[in-house]
Amino acid sequence: MPSPESLAAFVDMVVSGRHVEAIEAWYHEDASMQENQRAPREGRDALVRHEAAVMARARSVTSQCLAAPWCNGDQVVIHWRFCFTWADGSHTTIEELAPQQWRGERIWRERFFHDPAQLKPTPGLPGSPQTG
């Protein structure tokens, strides 16, 4: 079960844009992540490589925790919003719920639930008329 301090430190790390470092610091070696119904990515090293590749494609990323994380024992749910500006200037905003299963002070399993339509990049900047 994560302590309130650990959960806050994890969220702060993500919100500060240190996504790769958050995986390195807060995920078990045998952790997995799964997006919607896709097959899970398994192993912290694979999770780090995937996250680093996504971040390398982005010109900028803004991360927000939209509500206080819900925590009940080892079960945590976080409501996130991630705004990506890609190298070509297009923009993607993903709002998702992320249920997590912690083992002690680290995340063991995580699944992201979001509308896949959000993954399609939109021309323009966040908040511009093209992106609504």
Overview of the structural elements:
Helices cover 26% and strands 41% of the residues. It has 3 helices and 7 strands. The protein is of the alpha+beta class and 132 residues long. It has helices at 4-15, 19-26, 44-57; strands at 27-35, 41-42, 58-65, 70-72, 75-86, 91-103, 106-112. Mean pLDDT is 93; it is low at 128-132.
The count of helical stretches stands at: 3
Q: Catalogue the unreliable spans.
A: 128-132
Number of beta-strand segments: 7
The major sheet is characterized as: 7 strands, mixed
Query: What's the pLDDT, averaged over the residues?
Result: 93
| Cα shape | globular
Distance between the termini: 39 Å
Beta-strand content estimate:
35-45%
Query: How many whole angstroms does the radius of gyration measure?
Result: 15 Å
Write the layout of secondary structure elements.
Layout: H1 4-15, H2 19-26, E1 27-35, E2 41-42, H3 44-57, E3 58-65, E4 70-72, E5 75-86, E6 91-103, E7 106-112
Which characteristics define this entry?
disordered C terminus; 7 strands; 41% strand; alpha+beta; 3 helices; 7-stranded mixed beta sheet; 132 residues
In short:
The protein has 132 residues and is an alpha+beta fold. The protein contains 3 helices and 7 strands, in the order H-H-E-E-H-E-E-E-E-E.
